[in-house]
């Protein structure tokens, strides 16, 4: 039996979306392949805001969010070979899958049709998954990642979702030496995309409308900074970029998506990882926008364990560290509001304060 009391900062009233109350929670029923983790740190993600504000649909109450989790192993199931008590580990935005389908058997478990999100999902037995603004969590070993000794917990936390979400498409679509990579939107995800793409050896083009971030973006390593407020910002870069990763999670119908696509080289890819509220679709496109350079438009969903381990090795080897601000977990409401208001530079990490 677990000696940990499972409790967390939970949403209880959607009309007060960032007024979280300490609440007892029911963890996953422990199985032979599970790892139990005492949480020390949890990053604050835009997904948390979308979920708490009901932008992605109705929450299962009470609900603890948070899926950028770092902690220490307190218990392992009989079939767990990779981890032992005391190990420092992380958990990201996915906590389960069927393990049987073609994606699961091909190192694409993040695309499993029956995947289970770290919070606001249900396990097959009906238990609601609860996230990392909490004392502890249980997870199948496939969704637990060992953290290299060289990376501090506060730095590793936001890699579990934000870092992995942009690392995956950069890796998949060949960011590296000789490639020109555009990053659209330099927030929590975008700043990671700049850091990773630079560490991979790509030439990095950062697109932003926020002049107050430009000095920061230079320090992150971007080779070029393009102010999207300038008319015709895209014209000098026509047919130039091999890949654009869009991290934007707010679109207006006026967003000139076709102009971004025009900057892609032949068969270049535009990959969106930011997911807006359900009432905000991508801006409309005309087939002409795709035909002139044969470009491709696609998406990406978090990342696999294989990609997470590759990402952590890159961070260890190249000393990649995020730009973060720490605060105690009791201040989650403040952090969430600042994320919603785009005031974070560039990721909040909550530190454990529940006994």
Question: Can you tell me about this structure?
Answer:
This protein is α/β, with parallel strands linked by helices and 355 residues long. It contains nine helices and 17 strands. It has helices at 46-52, 153-157, 162-172, 188-200, 214-220, 257-261, 287-291, 305-318, 332-340; strands spanning 7-10, 21-24, 34-44, 69-76, 88-91, 94-96, 116-117, 136-140, 145-146, 180-184, 203-208, 224-227, 241-246, 264-272, 296-299, 324-328, 347-351. Strands 3, 4, 5, 8, 9, 16 and 17 form a seven-stranded mixed sheet that branches. It is globular. It starts with 6 loop residues before the first strand and ends with a strand.
In short:
This protein is α/β, with parallel strands linked by helices. Helices cover 21% and strands 25% of the residues.
Unreliable stretches: none
Measured distance between first and last alpha carbons: 18 Å
Mean pLDDT: 97
Give the strand tally: 17
| Proportion of residues in extended strands | 15-25%
Q: Give the biggest beta sheet.
A: 7 strands, mixed
In DSSP terms (H or I, runs of 4 or more residues), the helix count works out at 9
Shape: globular
Query: What's the SSE pattern?
Result: EEEHEEEEEEHHEHEHEEHEHEHEHE
Helical content band: 10-25%
Rg (C-alpha, Å) = 20 Å
- Given helix and strand content, the structural type is alpha/beta
């Amino acid at each position: 039996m677990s000696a940990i009391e499972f409790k967390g900062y939970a949403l209880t009233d959607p009309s007060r979306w960032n007024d979280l109350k300490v609440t007892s929670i029911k963890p996953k029923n422990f199985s032979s392949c599970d790892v139990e983790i005492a949480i020390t740190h949890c990053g604050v993600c835009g997904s948390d805001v979308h979920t708490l504000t009901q932008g992605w649909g109705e929450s299962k109450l009470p609900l603890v969010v948070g899926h950028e989790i770092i902690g220490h192993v307190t218990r392992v199931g009989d079939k767990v070979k990779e981890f032992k008590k005391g190990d420092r580990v992380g958990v990201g935005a996915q906590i389960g899958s069927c393990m049987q389908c073609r994606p699961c058997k091909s190192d694409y478990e993040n695309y499993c049709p029956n995947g289970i999100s770290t919070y606001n999902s249900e396990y097959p037995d009906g238990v609601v998954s609860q996230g990392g603004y909490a004392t502890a969590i249980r997870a199948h070993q496939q969704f637990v990642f060992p953290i290299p000794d060289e990376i501090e917990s506060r730095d590793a936390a936001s890699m579990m979702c934000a870092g992995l979400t942009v690392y995956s498409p950069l890796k998949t679509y060949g960011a590296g030496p000789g490639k020109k990579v555009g990053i659209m939107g330099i927030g929590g995800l975008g700043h990671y995309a700049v850091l990773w793409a630079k560490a991979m050896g790509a030439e990095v083009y950062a697109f932003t409308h926020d002049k107050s971030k430009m000095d920061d973006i230079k320090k992150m390593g971007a080779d070029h900074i393009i102010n999207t407020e300038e008319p015709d910002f895209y014209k000098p870069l026509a047919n130039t970029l091999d890949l654009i990763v869009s991290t934007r999670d707010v679109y207006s119908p006026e967003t000139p998506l076709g102009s971004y696509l025009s900057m892609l080289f032949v068969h270049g890819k535009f990959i969106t990882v930011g997911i807006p509220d359900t009432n905000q679709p991508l801006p409309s496109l005309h087939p002409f926008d795709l035909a002139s350079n044969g470009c491709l438009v696609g998406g990406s969903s978090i990342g696999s364990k294989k990609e997470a381990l590759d990402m952590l090795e890159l961070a260890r080897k190249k000393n990649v560290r995020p730009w973060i601000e720490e605060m105690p977990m009791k201040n989650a409401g403040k952090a969430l509001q600042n994320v919603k208001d785009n005031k974070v530079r560039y990721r909040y990490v909550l530190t454990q304060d529940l006994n």
